[in-house]
Task: structure prediction
Amino acid sequence: MRRWNGWGDSANDYPLKPAGVAFLQQALGPGRPLPDASLESVLARVPASRLAPHPLIDTDAETRLRHARGQSLGDWLAMRSGDFRVFPDGVAFPENSEQVRVLLDWCQAEGVRLIPYGGGTSVAGHINPPAGEQPVLTLSLAKMNRLMALDEDSRLATFGAGTPGPEVERQLAERGYRLGHYPQSWELSTLGGWVASRSSGQQSLAYGRIEQLFAGGRVETPRGTLELPTIPASSAGPDLRELVMGSEGRLGVITEVKVRVSAAPRDEQFHVAFMPDWPSAVALARRLVQERVPLSMVRVSNPEETRTQLTLAGHERLVAALHRYLAWRGQPLDGKCMVTFGVTGDRRHCRHALTEARRYLRAAGGVTTGRALGRKWQEARFRSPYLRHGLWEQGYAVDTLETCVDWARVPQTVAAIEQALRDQAGEGERAHVFTHLSHLYAQGSSIYTTYVFRCSDDYETTRQRWWAMKRAASDAIVEHGGTISHQHGVGRDHAPWLEHEKGAQGLAALRGLFTHFDPQGRLNPGCLLED
Amino acid sequence: MRRWNGWGDSANDYPLKPAGVAFLQQALGPGRPLPDASLESVLARVPASRLAPHPLIDTDAETRLRHARGQSLGDWLAMRSGDFRVFPDGVAFPENSEQVRVLLDWCQAEGVRLIPYGGGTSVAGHINPPAGEQPVLTLSLAKMNRLMALDEDSRLATFGAGTPGPEVERQLAERGYRLGHYPQSWELSTLGGWVASRSSGQQSLAYGRIEQLFAGGRVETPRGTLELPTIPASSAGPDLRELVMGSEGRLGVITEVKVRVSAAPRDEQFHVAFMPDWPSAVALARRLVQERVPLSMVRVSNPEETRTQLTLAGHERLVAALHRYLAWRGQPLDGKCMVTFGVTGDRRHCRHALTEARRYLRAAGGVTTGRALGRKWQEARFRSPYLRHGLWEQGYAVDTLETCVDWARVPQTVAAIEQALRDQAGEGERAHVFTHLSHLYAQGSSIYTTYVFRCSDDYETTRQRWWAMKRAASDAIVEHGGTISHQHGVGRDHAPWLEHEKGAQGLAALRGLFTHFDPQGRLNPGCLLED
Result:
């Protein structure tokens, strides 16, 4: 069963290995485990619903509790401490667009706020019900999870918006296709959520971001139904899909999503190589993408991430062998950077792409190591969100943040983000910070930074230290011209930084757009744009 | 000097060859040349300007005449007959964003309508001044035509929005880069115009549409300056660039454009092959793009276009040799379809891409013919707009239209468009109609149809027959789920069909957006959205 206060299914458990615990104790000092609240104690704190009865709405306390929080570190601390603060007044599970329409109209008539809910995996506060006098209905798309149509000529699949990643791929694979959108939240996050938050997946280099995959669909808005027809490309005015992507529930509920699918690949491989240092690794990444080497993913870890990953993974014999090999090839062990890359397609394509990648790697002083580490990456590719559990049990907290900047700004931005996090770890505390580049573009790169820190003696101090670090890193991001989010969206947590990137004119235009579709302001208030 | 009543520089002249004239006479009957108005006679019809004097505004009659019309067939008939109807009251040539700001504010204060003007190459009535009591200022970006900045790390170039295609590429080539955006209007059309109308170029398969190239810039709107920062990718809410692209002057004046550039390619080749019939040619095109064969352009001509191109090109010996070769290879000569394709990149890439393309061609029953015809295509790639002159001298008119549909709809849509044009040629008249697919997408393809018809005895009847054909083809396009424009934009001519694709909700949202930026409705009224 899905955890009520953490990530994933409770059957999946990945405790930290002893070498990992020792590594963190050395880096941060001994952990300080905080006590977890019990489900019963939290259930007792769920207030009575303020909603009038409705046949499509469930007001059961546990259902409401299980839809009250996402997966930000702030949400985690709330769930673990039991201090949820606000619960939705009810949860609806419509089975089709018509029922969504009914619920939306009902919310308008009854003065109820509505929060669209996909997989509940937001790490930015998208689905957290706001406090206030108006009752809040959370609308889960969980029952709209089927492949509704497949146009094989045009490679277009229509899904219910609540279809989670594994169900998308399972239903497509049966017919020989793949969507290829693999965010780290893939096990739980949904197509509709990906569209609403402009998501990006690990293999965006081959398959594109959700922007390239989302071909059309249906959105129920307070003003009426917005149908987005499928047209491969058009010069007929601004593209309405672009208004829906990233709208984060502010203009309507996405109910059906049409996506561009590909043939299931005949071959796919992931490889790992090592570069001698960070500047040469960044230069290699830029060169691979600007020279259009047709890879399906590239991830370049900085030295601290490389060291941390190799230690936490716990493959001690494999890593020892790797180090012997790198030493034999004359690669420095300190400061080395891991480069994980993938090729996807038919065999001829993969062979060509691998040859090209190796050519650039060699020319830049890199050492390739074959497929063993690549296979390990592939096995563990969706396991990162579980890491929080293993750390938590040892008394540590972990969070991640990401941005995207032009190549000219990458090195300084990485340094500034990491420094901001370290500086704000708190009196007498340290943060263990590491970074990778992934989602490469010819223009620049995403920057994905992880920070681990030791809990304080109580939840509130821990939360305040987390927020001080996140705030300082967010300030550093916008000061360096980065987006406040490359793949997680804005939600409530990132909204204060949005104006840096959109400008006052841009924010006003977005506000006008949302008011056009939702004149009463019932939809997900405070999300994306601060109220 | 640039022609005042036609396409391009008057030094460029491509009269129809005798074989072409004979071909058309057989297809359509003898041409009926219509008399051209003289520049003097039209100048005499330019009324006095209604604008108050302003140091940045030119009210000279010839300047106003030369900015009154674009390049649609309707514009052509107006220019050739001398019946321009409406002229702008003045033309301004600002040299920087600050002067654009001054002019925009002045128009607001004085109650003047403003039409942004790039290269004046619109084929949909974008820049035609509307009749009415309010005076009209045309704002030409012609003096804002320089490369202002180049970030080589991030491969970003900043240009004045009025920079025309050849100037873009010349200034980039000096530094080793290429934009790679080559619409047929390339000789005259501008970066700002490409953004405002969501343009696409011949090599969009490699370089992307303007959507993929436009990285940010500056827009002066009545509400203030909208700065679009460069961020490679973002999940932070709807992308403001997407509101600007396709806005067709309705929300502001684009003054600076930042574009993503590529290294100048080390190798580039264009090749021609032939497929035995139209269904197999369409299937090949779909397969090439869905299997991701890395070509930089593909154009698939239907049998009528193939026959027409080979005849009009006038390379009689080359074509005779081609026919002998195709016969020897067992290819049928009737019904054959020409496939023009290109590879662009370094030598290894081009070799790989060519090998792959030939493999798919052979498997589908195609015959490759080497580079001779590909070189001819390359030499003449921007010559199509001049064709109207050669035909006109012989008493024929020509127009083109385009759409884009999902692959499942391609064959029926082509047939319906062609049939609509033939059916509406007029009593006792015929239309010579042919089509190609270019701008391929995994989801579908653009459809580009050319129609040639004989002029009537007078301009007005000719115009009415043209509009009857265009209207019927536009109806056929939207009935088949196509966009009313894949690359030319909406302007005034296509506006009646826009609601089919945007829906009432979508149109209302766009109208709200434009009203937000331009509350007085001074900017390009009637363009994109009907008033």
Notes: Residues 384-488 of chain B form a domain with the GMP Synthetase; Chain A, domain 3 fold (CATH 3.30.300.330).
